[in-house]
Amino acid sequence: MADGQSEIALDLLPRHMNSWQVMHGGVVMTLLDVCMARAARSLDTQATGSATIEMKTSFFRPGGQASSRVIAKGKVLHRTTTMYYCEGEVWNQDKIVAKSMGTFKLVRRADVGTRMTRTSGEDA
User: How far apart are the two ends of the chain, measured CA to CA in Å?
Assistant: First the structure.
């Protein structure tokens, strides 16, 4: 991941398959979610994590069978001070499997510490 882009490869195993013996849709969506979040995080060195605010996915064809390799590619399209708008694609060789658009909010370590302190103080 770098410069608002990311790429992830996955070698498919039998555990990634659905009952039709092709890549499960949940695996496809997980790859899309992670590659878009990593693209966003590549633009903020202070980010320690991300939260998916919204994600829409379109499936075009079965993802692949066990022993094939799929590639997920993520890209930041636009960002504001708090939100990152991204797109992601999953490819099996030269064929697109699915495409997604997502909105992500990055989390910084200081943000988490502040919320933890504020929450702890409210309970006391």
Answer: 42
pTM over 0.90: no
Q: Within a 13 Å sphere around the CA of 111, how many CA atoms are in the beta-carbon half?
A: 11
Residues in contact with 20: Cβ distance below 8 Å, sequence separation at least 6, in sequence order? 62
What are residue 103's DSSP bridge partners? Answer: 54, 85
- In sequence order, what are the beta bridge partners of 18? none
DSSP string of 21-73, one letter each residue: SSB-HHHHHHHHHHHHHHHHHTT-TTEEEEEEEEEEEEE-S----TT-EEEEE
pLDDT digits (tens, 9 = 90+) for 9-40: 999 999 999 999 999 999 999 999 999 999 99
Dihedral of the CA atoms 75, 78, 83, 88 (nearest 10)? -20
